[in-house]
Amino acid sequence: MIGDAPQHTGLADSEAPAPRILLRGVSKTFGNQNNGGGTLALANVDLTVRDGAFVSLLGPSGCGKTTILRMVNGLIAPDAGTITVSGQAPRPGPDMGFVFQSFRLIPWSSVRGNVEFALVETIPGKAERRARADRYIELVGLSRFADAYPSELSGGMKQRVALARALASEPAILLLDEPFASIDAQTRELMQIELMRLWTLRKSVALFVTHSVDEAILLSDQIVLMGPRPGRVLEVIDVGLNRPRWTYDVRAEPRFIELRSYLWDRIRTLVLTDPQSDFYGRDLSANI
Prior knowledge:
Layout: E1 19-30, E2 39-50, E3 54-58, H1 65-72, E4 80-85, E5 96-99, H2 111-117, H3 126-139, H4 155-168, E6 173-177, H5 185-202, E7 205-210, H6 213-219, E8 222-226, E9 233-238, H7 254-272
Parallel strand pairs: 3-7, 3-8, 5-6, 6-7
Antiparallel strand pairs: 1-2, 1-4, 8-9
Helix pairs in contact: 2-3, 2-4, 3-4, 4-5, 6-7
């Protein structure tokens, strides 16, 4: 039964692997903080991500999910608390791949050129770079379009290029900020399967931001449920569905149905009771 208390793996501390990503007491405020100003985005966030885990951050808009990704990547620093990645202070580099909601492809460069661009610092040899890029282009099913330019690709194909570019450096950590939010529903489902297959090949850490309950359950080992701004971790839930999940109808599983109902009820309650929400105080059960 799913309860309000955080869910755990059941491993004793001595048996559990060392965390790859660790946040303790992290807070972040944006804007002018003089005289109590600014917007408190995150408040006292604790988060542990184990090696080889796929973890999704799920919660209402504005709860700081993307801010956490940016701090883990070292793009911004917390105002309070500590963050360690592989035991060190976070900083951008080839050990971390970042997939954005927008594709962020270089428009004047081919598919191959976009993927090779991520390898310039780590693979000096041109032939080796091309071989690595071609391998990941093939893995995302775009070999026939290696010489095509972004303007010639559909939205789903552009996102596959972005995924190949992030994976090509073979990072230990993959950060994904709503990567499928801007593509159509059918392509989104195919891309979810593509991501699961590619992640299974390397089992790098994946920290995934989404607003979709179904997507979080489908992809994740754990789901971190966050509350409205200022964002905080309310609960960590173990998904507990067998992998690989593209080999059976995971959405028909009782566990999937249970989690979906529970998470949707919790998020709906969070949104309807949040004074900052546009839906604050609405009775969604009332007749129109």
